[in-house]
Amino acid sequence: MKGKRLTALAMAAMLGVSAVQPVFAADWQSANPLIAHALGEADGKIETNSKEAFITSWQNGFRVVEGDFTYTSDGTLVVRHDFEADGSYYRLEIEPNGNLVMDSKTYVETPAVYEQTPMTAVDLLYLMVEYPDMYLVTDTKDTDKATVQRQFRDLKNIATNIGAPEVLDRIIPQIYNKEMLNWVKEIHPFQNWIFTLYLYAYPDYKDIASFCVNNGIDTVTLHVDRATKENVSILKASGLKVYAHTINRYLIFQDVLENGVDGIYTDRIKPYELEWVGLENSRSTAEQTFVVNDKEMTFTTLDIFGKAHAPLRQLAEAGRKFSAEYHKEEGTLNLTLGKKFTTLGNEMLMDDSGRLVTKKADFKLLLGGKETGIQCFYVDGEVYAPVEDILAIVQK
Q: How far is residue 1 from each of residues 33, 260, 350, measured CA to CA in Å?
């Protein structure tokens, strides 16, 4: 959206409502106007809820994904929209066979769209451990208390059993009615919540806004057709963030931004395309100065998992300079101190798109032939490494 957008307090002042706003949990929304629907797009395929979708979304810059949940016939919580003949089976190019509700073994052995990996809830939470900056919005669909509590109890137990209860701090439950909030709170006091309105035939926006404010819910999601300027303004007057779903066209995205929404759920629009609708991608590089052997050096850095990463070719000029030799067959990149860095060749497939597409490097980083344990990344094909970790091994 072109021009500056009003803060919640400024909007409240203009509308003549109280400037005292509720205290909400950590602001995950401001840097994330896009939520990847059904974990996002992978290889041109959408609505898969697959492992590949999650990883591709992270690589493309998403930091919030929405995932669907349901149960197999033998009671395993899985990441799938449904087991209905004209639903997920059709979209995922899977032929229904026998009992429509798969058992867990059949489910995990049946690829989505021929080659993508289906996930259980356990698989998904392990991915959230591996990608510790990703938030997950739940779409659990059921509205009866017993099933709702079973689903969130399972998520809590999985996080505990895999030794990562902190993952729950990055799970954002979507609730479908007022009663569901307390049902879920009885299971776990999640830090963030979304009230989604797609099950409401005739939403009372003022009543919903009041409920959210009084109960610490800071985000409301509504269908794109309901994201009118009037409806959005009622919600935002109470300091709420508003998202619309599901939008895959840029002009429609522009329209709802002009109506005041803070973000959208999308299958296809990418964070690096936000400038097309007048927004900025929150992921960007910065020029950052470090002291290396009492000398200041400036690197082009990108934050990855909370650490500053910089191009390896820049870091090669710091401290005891080093060369780098890539062995594709062995899956290694070997650094040799005291030698000049020349090039890694064309193996890295660098590009100058500026999209900051980021992938975990598929090599082990060695120093003098010994493993360092340092994880590197490809950023638009350029090898980036954690600055502090590299400096620690190359300074005199």
A: 11, 9, 31
pLDDT in tens, 138-172: 999 999 999 999 999 999 999 999 999 999 999 99
Please state the separation of Cα 308 from the chain's center in Å.
19
Give how far Cα 244 sits from Cα of 22, 41, 224, Å: 22, 18, 5
**Whose structure tokens read 């992270």?**
58
Handedness of CA 46, 203, 30, 192 (dihedral sign): negative
Running DSSP on this structure, what letter comes out for residue 65?
E
Which residues are paired to 222 by β-bridges? 244
pLDDT tens for 213-240 read 999 999 999 999 999 999 999 999 999 9
Residue 5, both tokens = 């957008």
Both structure tokens of 307: 């650490």
pTM of the predicted protein model: 0.91
Residue 278 identity = G
SS3 content of the chain, % helix, strand, coil (to 5): 30, 25, 45
3-class SS letters over 228-248:
CHHHHHHHHCCCCEEEEECCC
In this prediction, residue 345 carries a pLDDT of 58
